[in-house]
Specification:
With 296 residues, this protein is an alpha+beta fold. The chain has 9 helices and 4 strands.
């Protein structure tokens, strides 16, 4: 397959996906979890009632408006997000639930995050993503420092940075849309998933770039960079796809059979792994030709 010949098709697909993701984030915004906004998350096992009934009871009887509610069919539990409540308020609400709504109700988990802590978590999450992006790019530039022709080493780092941003924006845009339509909230699990995706996708990119570097050093015809890239991709594509498929199969099993608390962490990983593999093969390598010094 001549990937370089059709590079503008692959790059066009990525540009369209990134543009759609940016639109999604700017138009819908993010529905933030309590990690970033502050509040309480209460997990209750309540059988035989619907989500609408639970929400109505909290809103009208307990006077505790819910920000979000999700149901885990695996253990008949509800994850309820609401404003910060004290331990005394929680105990009183639980007693009211058992006496006037569901006698068999059982508390599975509860935790609160204050607004000051949530602001600190948000700053830390943003800093972590920025540091990873810059650190990985500098590392790639250092690893490829011995190559100056036909593409300078720092450009390998720049291309890696571009593909990492690509791999972060697409899952982020997806979650912005899901937050609007399905009330999914982003939290620290989402940030951790993005960091894992960046680490996995940069590994794929390094594998392809390293093979390109080897073939450039072996070849006397550095002007034919497109041929070298095509050959290098052909030598590594099976390994990259097989590795990604193995991870995708495991993540798919976790998504459909795992606990609710991991469901959207896994979904972020699935989206990031898929598009990360695509970018390492069809985006990062073809972009090297855009920085080709010697086009003879």
């Amino acid at each position: 397959m001549n990937i370089i010949k059709h590079k503008w098709i692959f790059l066009g697909v990525s540009i369209a996906l990134v543009a759609a993701s940016i639109f999604s984030m700017s138009y819908f915004g993010f529905r933030q979890g309590i990690d970033f906004t502050g509040g309480s998350l209460w997990q209750l096992k309540i059988e035989g009632v619907s989500s609408e009934e639970v929400q109505s009871f909290f809103n009208t009887k307990l006077k505790l408006p819910l920000s979000s509610i999700s149901f885990d069919a695996a253990n008949s539990s509800y994850a309820l997000t609401l404003e910060n409540i004290s331990d005394a308020e929680r105990q009183a609400a639980l007693a009211s639930i058992k006496s006037g709504f569901a006698k068999t109700a059982e508390e599975l988990d509860f935790w609160s995050v204050s607004p000051s802590v949530s602001d600190e978590i948000k700053r830390g999450a943003i800093m972590a993503i920025v540091m990873v992006l810059v650190g990985i790019s500098l590392y790639i530039a250092f690893v490829f420092r011995k190559i100056s022709q036909p593409v300078s080493s720092w450009k390998y780092g720049l291309i890696t940075l571009i593909t990492l941003v690509h791999n972060v924006l697409i899952p982020a845009g997806l979650f912005a849309a899901l937050g609007h339509y399905l009330q999914l909230a982003v939290d620290t699990n989402f940030i951790v998933a993005l960091l894992v995706v960046m680490g996995f996708s940069v590994h794929d990119t390094i594998v392809v770039f390293d093979r390109i570097r080897e073939n450039i050093l072996k070849s006397r015809h550095v002007g034919h960079l497109g041929d070298i890239i095509n050959r290098s991709i052909g030598e590594t594509i099976r390994r990259s796809i097989n590795t990604s498929l193995t991870l995708i199969l495991v993540l798919s099993a976790l998504y459909f059979m795992g606990p609710l608390s991991l469901k959207y962490f896994v979904l972020t990983m699935l989206a990031g792994t898929t598009f990360g593999t695509y970018s390492s093969i069809f985006v990062a390598s073809p972009m090297l030709t855009l920085f080709h010094r010697d086009r003879s």
